[in-house]
Design a protein that fits this description.
Radius of gyration: 17 Å
Helix content: 40-55%
Strand content: 15-25%
Number of helices: 6
Structural class: alpha/beta
Largest sheet: 6 strands, mixed
Number of strands: 6
Length: 207
């Protein structure tokens, strides 16, 4: 049975962490961050990546945040629902960042790098929330990322997450889509699948 080993220098000291956010629009400076999910990864001794821990938080819209009705219709979020158990941005980010920093240390890495489907969108909202809240210890690289849109286009000729997931042989549940946790988990499985496929191909070539 394969054992997990530190990711270490597999990505030049970066730990890939898969992130998805749900928001009240497309403008990171003005629109609300409503949900964030982050998934840390582990690597076995064959060099294959797998999901490790999932952490997610519902987020209270910051004061003055814009909420676009069209965005709320897509993600199905009622920002003021009493059962949403949302927390302020600073608390949500602090909770997520704490677990990411732990995973960075456990994997003998120096920093996290965000993995996302349209990663610049997710990173933009995180960076904007970090600036609003004044958080000092952001574990993510401020501008570099791994984008599964590009990887899926290369591997499967698909750029839409649902289509790329199906092309990769993953089951896609439309009813669960547009939840940050579900989309992050599917993105993580897509990312790991593509990289593991590449790892196997590299092994075949070297053999």
């Amino acid at each position: 049975m394969s054992e997990y080993v530190p990711i270490g220098q597999r990505f030049r000291g970066f730990l890939p962490v898969v992130v998805d956010v749900e928001t009240g629009g497309f403008n990171a400076q003005t629109d609300a961050l409503l949900q964030i999910a982050a998934i840390t990864l582990r690597m076995n001794d064959a060099g294959h990546l797998h999901r490790d821990q999932t952490i997610s938080r519902h987020v209270v819209p910051f004061d003055g945040a814009n909420l676009e009705p069209a965005s709320l219709e897509v993600n199905g979020i009622d920002p003021w629902h009493p059962l949403r158990l949302a927390v302020p941005e600073k608390e949500a980010l602090s909770d997520v960042f704490k677990e990411v920093r732990r995973a960075v240390g456990e994997n003998e890495c120096t920093r996290a790098i965000l993995v996302g489907h349209n990663a610049a969108f997710d990173l933009g909202f995180i960076n904007a929330a970090v600036a609003r809240t004044g958080i000092k210890r952001n574990p993510f690289h401020p501008f570099s990322n791994f984008d599964t849109v590009t990887l899926a286009a290369m591997a499967y000729g698909q750029t839409v997450l649902a289509r790329a997931a199906r092309a990769a042989g993953l089951e896609w549940n439309t009813a669960q889509a547009h939840s940050a946790t579900y989309d992050a988990e599917m993105t993580a499985d897509l990312f790991c699948g593509i990289l593991n496929r590449w790892q196997r191909c590299q092994g075949s070539v070297s053999d």
